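Inverse folding, one chain.
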């Protein structure tokens, strides 16, 4: 019954948002409807984890299909810009974390970990190892940021020129190869198991993206073209999950904390606009939209969906998000955790 109720709300909300012309209706509709109903009613909802997994896999395949041999080679050229954008966004996030600490009267440890755009699960795990970090605050900050970014950024892109207003490269013809398809499945399973072994976030999304990029860069053709119905299904499955991710948010959210989180994220989004403007001025062959979605502090899945709908360079945006994800997980997050633990030791906690 709970599953049927959840599915019905998600479908109806997506349909209504589509009818009123909302951007990304099948993602934002279920997400907003379920979030609101979860907070203001006693209704119970249920969305199996397997639905989220299927949605992420579909999105991974769609995003991965945007990679061509040329776009993969171009990633090496863009590495300096990826580093510049990633380091700039991380430094800005940490500085805004300091401001958040003052505004919300929260510990420095909680504020910095909550502000770091490195993924909910990873930051919560790190916060559990830092004595003065409040796991609840970190979780609420990370979760609410996802909601704000997924709501604000897609709406802002409706005012930006997509690929329809610029020169768009022709999509390579779909060329089905049984050998390449089999290799992609085998590689996907291997990548998934390796990522699971090392606890990577959103491995269901990352594995197909990386596999499609590798296989298509070798074959030189697009292997799969997703029908529109599967695109809608992927948005709905992920949107419903995001809406239910925020468990009774109002119970853990004071007005002061909510205001501080909103200010923190609006400032960070505004900073990404500045970074996007700088890079689009340096590289006029790209659109401002490309760099804006590349810098946005949202998840790769959500920004990938937005890029697909807005006519942005999906391969470029995914490359920037992949670089930032690995940079944060392998360098930035461990470094911040190390400093915070040292701070704990100095204060005697």
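Residues assigned per position:
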């Amino acid at each position: 019954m709970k599953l049927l109720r959840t599915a019905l709300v998600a479908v109806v909300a997506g349909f209504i948002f589509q009818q009123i012309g909302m951007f990304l209706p099948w993602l934002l509709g279920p997400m907003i409807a379920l979030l609101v109903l979860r907070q203001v009613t006693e209704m119970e909802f249920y969305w199996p984890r397997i639905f989220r997994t299927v949605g992420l896999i579909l999105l991974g395949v769609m995003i991965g299909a945007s990679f061509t041999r040329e776009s993969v080679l171009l990633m090496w050229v863009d590495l300096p810009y990826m580093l510049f954008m990633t380091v700039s966004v991380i430094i800005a996030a940490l500085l805004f974390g300091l401001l958040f600490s003052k505004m919300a009267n929260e510990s420095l440890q909680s504020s910095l970990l909550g502000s770091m755009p490195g993924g909910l699960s990873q930051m919560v795990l790190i916060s559990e190892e830092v004595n003065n970090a409040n796991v609840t605050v970190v979780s609420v900050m990370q979760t609410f940021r996802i909601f704000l970014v997924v709501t604000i950024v897609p709406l802002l892109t409706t005012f930006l020129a997509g690929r329809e207003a610029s020169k768009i490269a022709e999509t390579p013809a779909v060329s089905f190869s049984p050998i390449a398809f089999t290799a992609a499945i085998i590689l996907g399973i291997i990548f998934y198991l390796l990522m699971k072994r090392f606890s990577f976030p959103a491995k269901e999304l990352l594995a197909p993206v990386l596999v499609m990029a590798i296989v298509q860069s070798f074959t030189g053709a697009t292997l799969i073209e997703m029908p529109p119905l599967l695109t809608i299904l992927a948005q709905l499955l992920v949107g419903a999950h995001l809406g239910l991710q925020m468990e009774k948010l109002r119970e853990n959210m004071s007005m002061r904390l909510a205001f501080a989180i909103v200010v923190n994220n609006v400032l960070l989004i505004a900073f990404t606009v500045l970074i996007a403007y700088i890079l689009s001025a340096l590289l006029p062959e790209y659109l401002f939209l490309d760099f804006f979605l590349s810098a946005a502090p949202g998840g790769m899945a959500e920004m990938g969906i937005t890029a697909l709908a807005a006519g942005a360079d999906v391969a470029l945006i995914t490359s920037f998000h992949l670089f930032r994800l690995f940079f944060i997980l392998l360098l930035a997050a461990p470094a911040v955790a190390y400093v915070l633990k040292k701070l704990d030791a100095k204060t005697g906690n």
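The mean pLDDT is 81. The CA atoms of residues 242 and 274 lie 28 Å apart.
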